Amino acid sequence: MIKSVVVPRIVAREAELDQLQSLFKELGFSPGESWNDDRSRGLPMLAPMGALEFYHGQPPAPADVIVEVADVIQTIEIVQRHGMRIVAEPARTHWGADLFVALIGGCHIAFFCWANEARIPETEAA
Known about the structure:
Order of helices and strands: HEEEEEHEEE
Number of helices: 2
Shape: globular
CATH architecture: Roll
Oligomer: single chain
Helix content: 10-25%
CATH class: Alpha Beta
Largest sheet: 4 strands, mixed
């Protein structure tokens, strides 16, 4: 029955859309079907897999969206190269992943990879 899930985010300036599209393409997202009409312009970015995750208790990350990546260090370099602000430096989580959080398009996005796949020092995160 379900065909897709969309997490819409509004950005402050239209020029930011192109900047975000460039960032997400470099991170490995695929462009979805965009639109541009007299009311708005949108650039969906698609991931190969996704989930709605519900929890009770402490959140798994201090973020609006959580993205699994293959390499946290390479990802933070790409995010910084695109001028995005890191709001939580890479650190080890209580659930066994290495994670950082960036402010991208007004959205706190956590990027993580499982610790056995990561290359960062062991420090505690959220």
